[in-house]
Design brief:
By secondary structure, this protein is α/β, with parallel strands linked by helices. The chain contains 10 helices and 12 strands. It has a 5-stranded mixed beta sheet with strand order 3-2-1-4-5, sandwiched between helices. The protein has a 5-stranded mixed beta sheet with strand order 8-7-6-11-12, sandwiched between helices. A two-stranded antiparallel ribbon has the order 9-10. The longest helix has 27 residues.
Length: 314
């Protein structure tokens, strides 16, 4: 069985091709970038423009054609509503033209399942950190349970908002990581509330310090150290509570080397093992959608678009 997966929840239009054995045959994407952040109309225009090109490249990379594809999985949500709809209309047209079944899947679950499959794990504690999402997730009786999450901004969004303020472009994470290497620590709010975290107050404080002349390098370093320490604390508490000894980091922010370093130290200190996914699977891409589609092919069909679909709803 060969599955085509289409990702279009936010800035990335991606297409992956994967086999039922988890072999990634192709994984191609084109990401919207700008100096002004994620602008919905421009994202839609971008996705419409690149969709056929990305498909052609994926078929060429995977050495497959429509006749090889068993069904199409697509990201039904959660995500940016206009981006989801442009992706849905595109896969709907492809499915009709080539006689393929559609399987709408949860984008967040796809991040978890591709990481679990890639690392060959049985029962990890997940830390999912992307633009909108910051969650600590575990599996219980075949269902996902959110043990903790952000109370306001996702960490990636917070970093992107800072990026717009200091004009370092979108997405801001990679540039913030570079700038942090030149910075030193300044005090920022440390906001952990039980198993949850909050980032909006940190962003407000950072803006105030920027106005007072604190360098962007110092602020980047301090944001990373503070926010990553908050995540390490709540994840360690989740692992202690559940007795799990494997931690899997997924999502685009998981590409940050300092975050990985801090989580690895925490795991080693408690006798646990830390896992992550490679760069090409950390961010949004189509291979994870294809794999989640394979896993959920009997549960979901054409569910159209679900912008607020939580990981623990199904």
């Amino acid at each position: 069985m060969i599955i085509l997966g289409v990702e279009s929840t936010a800035h990335t239009f991606g297409i992956g091709v994967i086999s039922e054995k988890g072999e990634i045959l192709a994984n191609v994407k084109d990401m919207f970038t700008s100096k002004g952040g994620l602008i919905p109309d421009e994202v839609v225009e971008h996705h419409q423009k690149v969709a056929e090109v990305v498909l052609e490249k994926a078929f060429k990379q995977g050495k497959v054609s429509w006749s090889d594809i068993d069904f199409i999985a697509y990201s039904a949500g959660p995500g940016l509503d206009p981006a989801l709809w442009v992706g849905y209309h595109k896969v709907k047209a492809w499915a009709k033209e080539h006689g393929k079944k559609l399987v709408g899947v949860n984008h967040c679950c796809a991040h978890l399942s591709i990481g679990k499959m890639f690392n060959k794990l049985d029962d990890p504690c997940y830390l999912y950190v992307s633009g909108v999402n910051t969650q600590i997730v575990v599996e219980e009786d075949g269902k996902y349970r959110v043990m903790g999450e952000t109370l306001d901004l996702g960490l990636g969004n917070m970093l992107d908002k800072f990026g717009r303020i200091v004009k370092i472009g979108f997405p801001a994470g990679p540039e913030i990581e570079k700038l942090a290497l030149k910075g030193k620590y300044v005090d920022l709010p440390y906001v952990v509330k039980g198993m949850d975290v909050s980032f909006s107050g940190i962003l407000t404080k950072v803006e105030q310090l920027l106005d007072k002349g604190i360098s962007k390098e110092d602020l980047c370093f301090s944001m990373q150290e503070t926010c990553f320490a908050m995540l390490a604390e709540v994840v360690e508490r989740a692992m202690a509570h559940t007795g799990k000894n494997e931690l899997l980091l997924v999502g685009g922010v998981g590409a940050n080397k300092r975050l990985c370093e801090m989580l690895d130290i925490m795991c080693k200190e408690r006798g646990a093992k830390f896992f992550k996914v490679p760069m090409d699977l950390a961010g949004d891409q189509g291979a994870m959608i294809a794999w989640e589609g394979y896993l959920r092919q009997k549960e979901f069909g054409d569910v159209e678009v679900r912008p607020h679909w939580r990981v623990d709803e199904d």
